[in-house]
Amino acid sequence: MANYYTDHPELKFHLEHPTMEYICELKERGYKDKETYDYAPQDHKDAIDSYHQVLEITGDITANVIAVNAEKVDEEGPRCENGRVTYATGTQENLDAMIQAGLTGMTMPRRFGGLNFPITPYTMCAEIVAAADAGFGNIWSLQDCIETLYEFGNEEQHSRFIPRICKGETMSMDLTEPDAGSDLQSVMLRASYDEKENCWRLNGVKRFITNGDADLHLVLARSEEGTKDGRGLSMFIYDKNDGGVDVRRIEHKLGIHGSPTCELVYKNAKAELCGDRKLGLIKYVMALMNGARLGIAAQSVGLSQAAYNEALAYAKDRKQFGKSIIEFPAVYDMLSTMKAKLDASRALLYETARSVDIYKCLEDIARERTLTPEERKEQKAFAKLADSLTPLAKGINSEFANQNAYDCIQIHGGSGFMMDYACQRIYRDARITSIYEGTTQLQTVAAIRYVTNGSYVATLRGYEEKEIASAYAPLSERIKKFTDALEEAIECVKAHEDQAVLDFLARRLMEMSTYSIMSHLLLQDASRAPELFEKSLHVFVAFAEAEIEKHHKFIMDFKKETLAYYTC
User: Fold this and answer.
1) Burial of 82 (0-12, 13-18, 19+ CB in 10 A)
2) Which of 19, 207, 255, 305 lies at a C-alpha separation of 20 to 30 Å from 468?
3) Kind and range of the H or E element at 219?
4) Biggest distance spanned by C-alpha atoms of the chain
């Protein structure tokens, strides 16, 4: 029987990364929960075994329920009647199966009914689910909005809301408005305090809200009258049980059909403040978005895996000129590149997730006791690393997902253009990944400061100190030259002393940084498991080498006066 976890040993490899022992120790606070909960892990080995079991359950449900329903859900989609959303039949079956298996509120503490999972194994579950149905993945994985409520809400809110998510209620984050897409400072949904009822009231419209008829919403609204920028925005919790919000319509989308993307009308809706006033965008949404971007990076890897699976199976089965098309160089070149991009994306995803785990765990511990100076230093270092890696993982993983979905259809040839094959759904679903939760262009904006301040170069030089298998020494030397080229390109751009030039060349610098980091991570992975990653390492380094050389030449040859040729 198929299983989306055990069928891919690369996942088990990343779950057993050496850093996971430290993450488990932090998350479990020295495994003290074993004294209160008989199902809590006794030690690191027990914790990893628990993660394996849950991932195997997730892989089984994904393969034998979610994947089976995917095509029907894509055709049926959700519907909106009388201001409420009804999921497609298969979507509800998927959700019921996940809830019955206890796969909700996964990262929340056990005292609330959660599994107390680190971000890394939870992210693996998100990847696995997305490989079967990215649209359903949106609904299920929005449970991670509870991380923001847990981080910034008060204890009373924790006790009321977190257990509900752990029991299977759904969430949404209501940020975007008709006139406030990427520019969230322009949000105008109004929050006013109701003195008589001792609550806040929300009025206005939200648009493009994923799973917009969810049970609990985190809402960005303007609480400070007369303001027009981010300093006037606060975060609110809206409970659907209180009423006051209707779904005006469900958007008719290119892909992710199972996921209802809604336009919401708030009419004097009762809500409560989450955290402090005026920090909604400046602090809380940034935390919310970083979690969402890691989720899209995971969704992108799942879609890349799905595209590769479909392409590989078709190439083995399809015969032309008396042999399987996988034997043709033009086809196995595409397949090997797809696999290399998949493995590189996954390596970056879990490097990012592990960094998030460490700083989030230390941040949580800081609420219980004062961190030592060493712990504070470590917390800051991993927070910075996670913040620098997240836009790369979201940006490039989503671009690779689109490229792999494109190549999957190409390998299918004419059949890929027909609606009879899953590759067309994967292609349509992948397209949104480089758009929502911040376009690739916005990820470049987020990443460029880490290029210019030397953070990525420092990370790369740190990777150069890692021990690797001696067999890969020649590859290691080639990869080191990537960083040399990156440093030279950065200095060249800085020498222009022109913000317009930096903005124009930022994407190339970001890609050079990402491909260099991915190459190092694959080098480390292949050193530990050559049977899984050696081929991808060689293929990806060749790909990265060509791309970095291309960008390096463009930047070094760039003349400021030629910028006028690119303006419209």
Assistant:
1) exposed
2) 305
3) strand 216-222
4) 80
Q: Tell me the angle at which helices 89-100 and 44-61 cross, rounded to the nearest 10 degrees.
A: 160
Q: What is the dihedral of CA 278, 281, 285, 287, to 10 degrees?
A: -80
Q: How far is CA 114 from CA 100, 118, 205, 238, in A?
A: 14, 11, 33, 21
**Residue 373 burial by Cβ neighbours in a 10 Å radius (0-12, 13-18, 19+):** exposed
Q: How confident is the model at residue 184 (pLDDT cuts 50, 70, 90)?
A: confident
Report the distance separating Cα 188 and Cα 229, nearest Å. 10
SS3 assignment, position 191: strand
Q: What is the distance between the alpha carbons of residues 259 and 88, in angstroms, rounded to a whole number?
A: 9
- Residue tagged 């981080």 (tokens): 151
User: What is the distance between the alpha carbons of residues 135 and 129, in angstroms, rounded to a whole number?
Assistant: 9
Cα(544)–Cα(347) distance, rounded to whole angstroms?
A: 15
Return d(Cα 28, Cα 17) in angstroms, integer. Answer: 17
Q: Are 298 and 398 in contact (CB under 8 A)?
A: no
Q: Tokens standing for 86?
A: 């009804």
Whole-number CA gyration radius for the chain: 24
Q: What are phi and psi of 195, to 5 degrees?
A: -60, -40
d(CA 26, CA 47): 12
Angle (CA) 217-219-221 rounded to 5° is: 160
C-alpha distances (whole Å) from 252 to each of 5, 208, 360, 394, 436 are: 32, 11, 37, 25, 16
Tokens of 250: 């469900």
User: What H or E segment, with its residue span, contains residue 79?
Assistant: strand 79-81
Residue entry with tokens 């290399």: 340
Average pLDDT, the chain: 97
Rounded to 5 degrees, φ, ψ at 244 are 105, -5
Tens-digit pLDDT profile for residues 192-222? 999 999 999 999 999 999 999 999 999 999 9
Does 182 have pLDDT greater than 90?
A: no
Separation between Cα atoms, residue 283 and residue 294, nearest integer Å:
17
Stretch 284-309: mean pLDDT: 96
The helix/strand/coil state of 252 is coil
The length of the chain is 568
Q: 380 pLDDT exceeds 80?
A: yes
Are the C-beta atoms of residues 358 and 371 closer than 8 Å to each other? no
